Amino acid sequence: MRPTQKMNLFQSVTSALDNTLASDPTAVIFGEDVAFGGVFRCTVGLRDKYGKDRVFNTPLCEQGIVGFGIGAAVAGATAIAEIQFADYIYPAFDQIVNEAAKYRYRSGNLFDCGNLTIRAPWGCVGHGSLYHSQSPEAFFAHCPGIKVVIPRSPVQAKGLLLACIADQNPCIFFEPKILYRAAVEQVPVEPYTIPLSQAEILQEGSDVTLVAWGTQIHVMREVANMAQEKLGVSCELIDLQTILPWDTETVCKSVVKTGRLLISHEAPITGGFAAEISSTVQEECFLNLEAPISRVCGYDTPFPHIFEPFYIPDKWKCFEAIKKMINY
């Protein structure tokens, strides 16, 4: 048995970064306030342990952070860049989408920046409002050449982050900030990886397939229990884990079995990643569907402050969607 330790999500991220710095002498971690431990404490103690040349602060310039990361990765370093909030990744959008994602392709595989991993706190937090609660994964899901990953728990966070760091492509790793301190799990102290692009079936079921990622997985667990208790409906719950490239096979196999699909995410509904899953499943599983595919997502408005409880796709909205599908 591997030794494990009680960790919450931010501690499991720290543990993954610690493992990487210890085993890879080229690894560097950088971003705004990273040397001080970061606003969410994900890099606490790492500068003292590994030195200011390997864990360091950058100017407040996301374009510069990612641009520097690309250069470091091309030169052979394992570059781990932190964007302080996913909401502030947009100034770096050009660097990620036009440079990092295309670097290998445009050089005919002569050069690549596959050793670049970009971490960012993501999703709603209860009081984040316009600039601290966004879920921008769908923007990057349109861009071949990068991988986009979102964990649901401490064990997943460490294994998936280490998989991103080891992957030969640039990866964006979104960390659900509301989960940083939410739950504690026994996490292996030693490094381990969880395969990317593999969804995980968390609960087998026969009547409805529920697909989500990150924070929304915990909402869907409650919904599955409610559906079982109140309606006698058996739900199959799938954590997508990797947004790009996503695991179409696991989702489609499940829908063939259940005949119904509910997808839920916090991002706005129009052009959200649920739409991509929905259209793929419709193409692949049309004759197996017993009801229209349902999307329960955020509204097409900026993320509100005091109206956040009305905005987020809570268990009651998802439960209503299941009732509608079953009675279709």
Automatic annotation (TrEMBL):
Residues 7-182 form the Transketolase-like pyrimidine-binding domain. One of its GO terms (cellular component) is mitochondrial matrix. It is an enzyme of class 1 (oxidoreductase). The keyword Transmembrane does not apply. It is found in: Mitochondrion matrix. Keywords: Mitochondrion, Oxidoreductase, Transit peptide. The keyword Kinase does not apply. Its EC number is 1.2.4.4. Transmembrane segments: none annotated. CDD domains: TPP_PYR_E1-PDHc-beta_like (cd07036). One of its GO terms (molecular function) is branched-chain 2-oxo acid dehydrogenase activity. Gene3D superfamilies: 3.40.50.920, 3.40.50.970. It catalyses: N(6)-[(R)-lipoyl]-L-lysyl-[protein] + 3-methyl-2-oxobutanoate + H(+) = N(6)-[(R)-S(8)-2-methylpropanoyldihydrolipoyl]-L-lysyl-[protein] + CO2. GO terms for biological process: branched-chain amino acid catabolic process; response to nutrient. Together with BCKDHA forms the heterotetrameric E1 subunit of the mitochondrial branched-chain alpha-ketoacid dehydrogenase (BCKD) complex. The BCKD complex catalyzes the multi-step oxidative decarboxylation of alpha-ketoacids derived from the branched-chain amino-acids valine, leucine and isoleucine producing CO2 and acyl-CoA which is subsequently utilized to produce energy. The E1 subunit catalyzes the first step with the decarboxylation of the alpha-ketoacid forming an enzyme-product intermediate. PANTHER family: 2-OXOISOVALERATE DEHYDROGENASE SUBUNIT BETA, MITOCHONDRIAL (PTHR42980:SF1), 2-OXOISOVALERATE DEHYDROGENASE SUBUNIT BETA-RELATED (PTHR42980). Heterotetramer of 2 alpha/BCKDHA and 2 beta chains/BCKDHB that forms the branched-chain alpha-keto acid decarboxylase (E1) component of the BCKD complex. The branched-chain alpha-ketoacid dehydrogenase is a large complex composed of three major building blocks E1, E2 and E3. It is organized around E2, a 24-meric cubic core composed of DBT, to which are associated 6 to 12 copies of E1, and approximately 6 copies of the dehydrogenase E3, a DLD dimer. This is 2-oxoisovalerate dehydrogenase subunit beta, mitochondrial. It comes from Sander lucioperca.
